[in-house]
Amino acid sequence: MATFKGVDYFSSGPTRVVPVETRADISSRRFPGLDGEYQMNMGRRGGTIRQEGTLISSSAAGLKTLVNALRAQVGTRGTLVDDLGFSYAGCTLSSVRFSAERRVDTQGNHYADYVAEYLQALSSIA
How far apart, in Å, are the Cα atoms of 64 and each of 15, 16, 77, 104, 124? Predict the structure, then answer.
């Protein structure tokens, strides 16, 4: 079960958490008369984590509640735990995008696909 800040926003449907990148700050410099480029590693600068999934609710009102609860977390920082139990501490939810299309199945369940992106602080990356 995936959670953010200890709250289960995501168990209503499938979700996938993918650590996209961990960046290093590289300083590049060229010198007159020398071919090539001098590069110095200035250290790691944090990382990006992407989460994709679908929110599911038995009613339109319930889906709206889930969507609004997740949108309210944008800009907040906490620990993200993926569906396999891996923890990502120091994550700030930087954006959440929902598909324009909302679906309703024959049983009346309402669906909304989303993509959430988190920035993980450097001090939190092991």
Answer: 18, 21, 23, 13, 32
